[in-house]
Design a protein that fits this description.
Length: 327
C-alpha cells in the first residue's frame, strides 16, 4: 500500500473519531468509518476477499443475523400496538415504502442502462424494509418515533413475503429470480434472529443487560465490515460505473424522501407522520439487501447498490433530520 493511500485511510478514520465526540457531528461519524473502510478495500481488496482458503463473503449473513438479533432486542409488544393506535399511518407508510422505492429502482436501473445484475441491485435495495437508522432520524427530526419504530418492525416482519414478490415482478426482467428460495433466505436472515432477540428482550433482559449495551456498537461494526467486503469483491465493477451508481443512489434516496413526504401530505396525514414516513421510505435496510445478494451468489454485482446506498442515506438522513428539527 502506498503512503498516500494509508494517509487517506487514517485521515477518514480520525475524522470519524473526532465527529463521534461532538454531539452535533456524531451522526456523521458512522459515514466516515464506512468511507475509511471503503478506501482500504479499494486499495487493498485481496485482504478483504479471502483469508487463506476462507472467503470473507461467507461472513455477511452471520453478521446480518447479529444485526437483526440486536434489532429484535429493541422491540417490545408496544410496537405492535401501534398498528391499532395509528392504522392510517401504518397502512400509508407500508404502501409508500413498498411501492415508491421499488418502482423508482426499476426506473433508474432502466434509465442508466446498467448491466442487468447492477440494475437488479437498485431494485433490491428499494424492495427491502426500512432500516433502524430511520428511527434515529425520526427522533432527531421531532417526528413520530412510535410510528417509525412500528413501521420498521412491521415492514421487517413482512419482508420475507413482500420483497421476493417485488423482486420477481421487477428485477425478474433483468435477472432470473427464485422468489421461494429468497423468501426462505430472508426468514433465515431476519425473522429467526429478530424473534430470538424479541424473546431475549422479554425473558432475559436483566441477565443480558451488560451485553445488550454493546449490541449497537457491534451492529455498527458489522455494517461497516459488510460494506467493506462487498466493496472489495466488487472493486472492478465499482471503479467502472461507481460514479453513475452513486448518482442513481442519490436520486433514488432523495426522490424517496420527497415522494414519501408529499404523498402523505396528499393523503391528509399530519406533519409529524409525513416526516416519519419520508424517512421510512427513503432509508432502506442495506444490510438485508447485501445478505440477499450473498445468498443469490452475486455479492460483487447485486450487492454494489446497497453498499453505496447505505453510507449515503445516513448522510442525507442526518442532514434532513437536522433541517427539520429547526422547523
Amino acid at each position: 500500500m502506498e503512503y498516500y493511500e494509508l494517509i487517506i485511510f487514517i485521515l477518514l478514520l480520525l475524522i470519524g473519531l473526532g465527529f463521534n465526540k461532538h454531539p452535533k457531528l456524531k451522526p456523521f461519524a458512522f459515514t466516515f468509518y464506512v468511507l475509511a473502510g471503503v478506501s482500504l478495500a479499494l486499495q487493498f481488496p485481496d485482504g478483504f476477499i479471502q483469508w487463506g482458503s476462507f472467503e470473507t463473503k461467507k461472513l455477511i449473513v452471520p453478521l446480518l443475523q447479529i444485526i437483526m438479533f440486536g434489532m429484535g432486542t429493541t422491540i417490545s409488544l408496544q410496537d405492535f400496538y401501534g398498528v391499532i393506535k395509528m392504522p392510517k399511518g401504518v397502512f400509508v407508510g407500508l404502501l409508500c415504502q413498498f411501492s415508491i422505492m421499488p418502482l423508482l429502482g426499476f426506473g433508474l436501473g432502466s434509465f442508466f442502462d446498467f448491466p442487468p445484475e447492477i440494475a437488479a441491485g437498485i431494485i433490491l435495495i428499494g424492495s427491502c424494509p426500512g432500516g433502524l437508522a430511520s428511527n434515529v432520524m425520526a427522533y432527531l427530526a421531532k417526528a413520530n418515533v412510535a410510528l417509525s419504530i412500528t413501521l420498521t418492525t412491521i415492514s421487517t416482519l413482512i419482508a420475507p413475503f413482500v420483497t421476493p414478490l417485488l423482486m420477481n415482478s421487477l428485477a425478474g426482467t433483468f435477472i432470473p429470480i427464485d422468489p421461494y428460495a429468497m423468501m426462505l433466505s430472508i426468514m433465515k436472515m431476519v425473522i429467526l434472529p429478530v424473534v430470538l432477540g424479541l424473546v431475549v428482550h422479554h425473558l432475559f433482559i436483566k441477565q443480558m443487560q451488560f451485553i445488550l449495551t454493546f449490541l449497537p456498537k457491534i451492529s455498527m461494526l458489522a455494517i461497516v465490515f459488510i460494506i467493506v467486503i462487498i466493496t472489495a469483491n466488487g472493486r472492478d465493477a465499482l471503479l467502472t460505473i461507481g460514479l453513475y451508481l452513486f448518482c442513481a443512489a442519490l436520486i433514488h434516496n432523495l426522490a424517496g424522501y420527497t415522494l414519501g413526504y408529499w404523498g402523505c401530505k396528499l393523503l391528509g396525514l399530519n406533519e409529524k407522520d409525513c416526516r416519519t414516513i419520508a424517512f421510512e421510505v427513503g432509508m432502506q435496510n442495506g444490510g438485508l439487501a447485501s445478505g440477499i445478494a450473498v445468498e443469490l451468489g452475486r455479492v460483487s454485482t447485486l450487492g454494489l447498490a446497497p453498499a453505496i446506498f447505505g453510507p449515503w442515506m445516513n448522510v442525507s438522513g442526518t442532514l434532513l433530520a437536522s433541517w427539520w428539527s429547526k422547523k
